[in-house]
Amino acid sequence: MTDVDYDATLRELQTPQGVLRYHEYGDGPPLVLLHGSGPGVTGWRNYRGNLGLLGEHFRCLVLEFPGFGVSDDWGGHPMVTAGGALGAFVDALGLDTFDVVGNSMGGGVGIGYDIANPGRIRRLVTIGGIGRNIFSPGPGEGIKLLQEFTENPTREGLIQWLHSMVYDPAVVTDQLIEERWALATEPGTLESARRMYSKAAFAAMIQAMNASDAPPQWAMMHKVSAKTLLTWGRDDRVSPLDMALVPMRTIPDAELHVFPNCGHWAMIEAKAAFERTVMGFLLES
Prior knowledge:
- It comes from Gordonia malaquae NBRC 108250.
- InterPro entries: AB_hydrolase_1 (IPR000073), AB_hydrolase_fold (IPR029058).
- Keywords: Hydrolase.
- It contains 13 helices and eight strands.
- By secondary structure, the chain is of the alpha/beta class.
- It has one domain (6-136, 212-283): 3-Layer(aba) Sandwich (Rossmann fold).
- β5, α5 (105-116) and β6 (121-127) form a beta-alpha-beta unit.
- The two termini are 24 Å apart.
- 43% of the residues are buried.
């Protein structure tokens, strides 16, 4: 596999709301990779280790969502604007149909897009983070640590949150900590994070959900049209494994793959098994 260079793959796309940045690598049918949320997250950091293999078969497009410090901030709640950003992105690139890999929030964005635009996504891979708690309490440990870091951004708080994301503590390297700390504490990124993760933001989100007559996404998953692969770390402390039960049962054409000794970042912590499983799914005729 070839090493993938950050600068050589970085692209910009002008939209009326601001610049969307993304990475493009490889040739073949389009595969859009959507990152999750959390302090210092980027699409590049989520998927840079997977692009070498995926790019041998697909035109990989790693979108950087607005409000996370790479693309321009569109304002509002970044988890809400992410759906519009995906739509603007694929339309501007002229992608009639495409595959999606989405980590956590990114998987939810993919599901929301598919429900609203049936037939556009051919195959959808999610990595934890969707569905709803059935047996485990919510929010999970990782979400609580995320809230604490957002309220009081310390290096120790960031390290504690990073450890909640993985099964193996060795995954949390000094390089990872420094990368995440630099972006997570940048003033604009921190302000955006507080619109998502502060205790006040969480309380407002719950209040809005309780006041709304619109069904939650987990109750709409029977409308997903894409063939779907749900991937999950057995030891996920952000979105526990029981959250997979509703999407596994209600998405019409879904299969579930669980990786042992793995937390919330299956594409990183179970890299070889994840790539083998996802490639088999995406390349299946």
